Amino acid sequence: GDDVHEHVVEEVATDVVPPTPTSSSPSSPVIPSSSPHQSPYPPQPQDAVGSSHLFQQVLDTCSALVLRVEGLENANAA
To answer: Residue spans with biased composition (Basic and acidic residues) (predicted)?
Structure first.
């Protein structure tokens, strides 16, 4: 009976060992995946919409700044 138990433990250990090389590299991705855990995967589409909206805001701000700078340059030139 003990031999069977030890064999099972060895099998589990060998099963765990192959992921260990991979889990050593995911140990760094665990930090990014902690934020998806805070906001689960379903909200990600909302995040995409929010980021595109934010991107649009940034674009609008940049174009507004460019227009202002061009206006200032034109005013200085005149």
So the answer is: 1-10
Residue 36 neighbours by CB under 8 Å, 6+ apart: 44
Check residue 51 and give left, alpha or beta (phi > 0: left; psi -120 to 50: alpha).
Answer: alpha
List, for residues 56-70, the tens digit of each pLDDT value: 899 999 999 999 988
Q: Domain locations in the chain?
A: 1-38, 40-78
At 20, list the tokens: 């260990």
Please give the single-letter amino acid code of residue 18: P
Residue 15, token pair as written in the block: 């099963």
In one-letter notation, the amino acid at residue 77 is: A
Q: DSSP 3-state helix, strand, coil percentages of the chain (rounded to 5)? A: 80, 0, 20
